[in-house]
């Protein structure tokens, strides 16, 4: 028997399954028994037709009446006459009747083969077949089955079936059967050409050129690809423009063979469940998207969309994201919605895609956010088409009910996406069709759902792009909501004017101008905004000045002349060079602006820790200027040393009395901008915690009950807050119980505040109080929080459930705890070797102590991490001395070393701290390496361990360091034989040994980082880096001029960059990218930076890298006997700390340039040749009275030491150590 199977239900009412007995074969049973499982029956080849298909054609034309039943079939076989059900009505065409009678002859010999019937149908024109079938239209004109048969028979075997389709299908059905992934790969290569075959006119087809039938398919070894990692390709299933989406909605003319793509669609969808690789699934989605563009609406919804939805649940995140894009494109291609699919969105698409809004993969959520607006728009279009259907009453669809259901489903998804933890998801939703969502929801829900969530973007102080996205898109939302949004937008625009990012300020100004042009802001609000933004006419940022001019000109064009003269001109004139009447012309206003505040002055003011004190000083100075007559010098009041230094620097940067007045006009904005970047306002009532900018103190503010009654947001939304019930207990509003106090450390916080005198104690106090404040805020009522924050905060952040607020506070506490642990890891003595200087510390050039006990060159200075007031020195005189910075009494006294050790083993060339900072390891030129232990009970250094290197095998030692940090207990030393050896002080023998290459040069210096890597400098300018975990070389960098590496210094912390001092310059190298990122170029190195010809007369031999107020600085010294301070963040603030004797350099300035991708800080000076240089004194050991306050020999090393304050220590080649304050 033979059967006819179909995956999808048949469109007709055929329910009879025909069992065709092979009554023309007497040995059918035997032949069936002898056939192999894979061979076909003899009557299923082209030579013999199928009788079941003939019966099916008869049933179709007889209006669903079965052609034969089992008794009728047996009777017809036994010789009885043809039953009436096997004949067509007399009204049918005679040729059709003869065709079916021939196909149903009793004798098999009288029936022609299928091949003959195909040849006859191929040679007959289509219009003749149509005439035959349409002849019975009078009787069956109303029958849909007749029309379906007409469509089926007229295109039963088109030309492409003979020339292309049959041979192409053999590729996928011939032995061996290809895997599903290989089938999709082949179809992906041919799909565009296949679409051309089915869509282009018949007379222009060239099948051989489109898809070669004999093309060899390269065999893909899937197992080999899996073993190699199987890199999936980047398949771009991107969102198209709205224009392209609109083009798909047009009725495109499909070719005469367009419906043949259904066969290709079935072939593709049959492979989907067998796909295993991510690339194959992405290719399949792209194929389905191309098929959607060339298929009918019924085919898209019935045959393609279910498989795309199936792939949206794939385990691969890339496939799920691509499926979402494909669904949006697929439904946009539906032009005419079938009646049976009118509820496809609320019942199928949206419920299936709803879990993607909370998908754990970020790209999936981004894809859903990009397409939710398009899906909502298409859903409304489908609902409108359903409303316009003729049989809408039969479908029993209520438009308002269905639209409300769509609103609710989309609202929940949009709310999920707008409250996502990742800012990029919010940006994707807002930037891709937020106005479409406003049209979808309507004015009221657009205000409640979209605008209320968008305003929370301004609370994210870390994501500048998210805040900028708000000001870019809020205009479109507000234009749809209308003037009802003006009271909400006014405080948000004012908040944007005081943002810490200048880019956000410009965006806020542009949004204000656009809202004003649309007439969405009332007159008083426009005047207030102009009054707040007019001071930015003196801002150093050109774009901000542009936007302010545009806002002023726009508002001036909207107001009447009286309002312009009374309210606008008085605000603008103080910032103009000359008075201007036509302020409505932005170009004239921009040309008339006075000189803005210098950029250096603005940055220095914002970086200052106490802007309030600075503004108060500026007011006092202005009052002093107003009291004196014109032409007389004002008498300013005394200022502190910090403000004196600030004003001195500001004056050098170009601050004049006019600039001071401009700063005073902008003082309110400066205070808010500086506070927004340095302050953290907690939810505790009246409590302010300052964490940034080096300020770490807490202060109690006066919290009156009515002090913030003028808050605009509180006035507007107080009623909504009073209606919301408070679920927290009154006993927990301001106090915590004993267990919570112990958990969050309230007792520790109070005791810490009482005894906090230093900066470190203040930092700890601020951290604990921040945790306490966040814990109290859990039980804080919403109106109390609103009164605490004032008008700068948004009301929407409190419109949430208490459990959600508790979750946010818990996340905040965990983040603060993590940041505190990071700071403790950086600041703790047991985890860090860097000395953190106070924010107010500045290196000076006042000589505190003159130490001259060494009789020869001092080679290295080392600070003791465990005893921050102690530092050691080693010299060519063979001694190691220990100094106590807290006992130094001034340069006029004779300051002696705390302890001295002489090994008598030659010059000591290297020194390092080890064993937690309680010991020193030293290396001599003769190959002796010894460890000195500092006795806690006395001031002596005792020998702890020692080893002697064999010069014949090991070579002399050139440098030593503590591998893995001072707490690791392993000493590393480099030798002349290009080896680096690890010596574990807790075990005998060598811990490890690294063998280098002498072709890179002789080792000259050594640096070991606590992160686990080690860097060695060579005489040929190379820096070789080793990974101590695996004992393998990581990378190597080389000086461009192959100059000797004299010193390697860490960039700070666990950074992957190091500073290499090579001859005339010092450079920072990134060990990951092997690129030179920064370079220090003193004036003695040459006029052109990074130009190494001619040979320089001086070199840099010492470098110290430190941190001050969060900014990196460097202090360098060399053969020119000068100490220079290099500020990496503000290069213009770099200067010479200590001049050389008889220094002839004047008019020094520093500038930053980018040369060949390297940021170069260059020292530029002009030599004064009018004063002849005097001879230097040869007597190094002078009396106390004759000591000079500078170095008279090349500087060899620099370090910092901490006593009552931080001191700078420098040594020189004449054996002198100077301590500077």
From TrEMBL:
GO terms for biological process: late endosome to vacuole transport; macroautophagy; protein targeting to vacuole. GO terms for cellular component: late endosome; nucleus-vacuole junction; phosphatidylinositol 3-kinase complex, class III, type I; phosphatidylinositol 3-kinase complex, class III, type II. WD repeats lie at residues 851-884, 1111-1136, 1191-1221. This is non-specific serine/threonine protein kinase. InterPro entries: 2AA_helical, ARM-like, ARM-type_fold, Vps15-like, WD40/YVTN_repeat-like_dom_sf, WD40_PAC1, WD40_repeat_CS, WD40_repeat_dom_sf. One of its GO terms (molecular function) is ATP binding. Gene3D superfamilies: Leucine-rich Repeat Variant, YVTN repeat-like/Quinoprotein amine dehydrogenase. Residues 264-606 form the Phosphatase 2A Regulatory Subunit A helical domain. Its EC number is 2.7.11.1. Pfam families: VPS15-like_hel, WD40. PROSITE patterns: WD_REPEATS_1, WD_REPEATS_2, WD_REPEATS_REGION. It comes from Pararge aegeria aegeria.
